[in-house]
Amino acid sequence: MVTTFIFDVDDTLYDQLEPFNRAFKKHFLRFKDEVDIENLYKLSRKYSDEAFESTGYEIKKLRKMHIYRISKAFEELGIRITEEEALSFQLDYETFQNEIKLIDEFPQIFELLLQRGAKLGIITNGADANQMRKIKQLGLGKWIAPENMLVSEIAGVSKPNKEIFEALEEKMGFSKHDVYYIGDNFNNDIVGAAAAGWKTIWVNFRKHAARDPKITATYVVEQPMDLLKLLDHLTKINL
Question: Comparing C-alpha atoms, which of 76, 79, 75, 66 is closest to residue 23?
Answer without folding.
Answer: 66
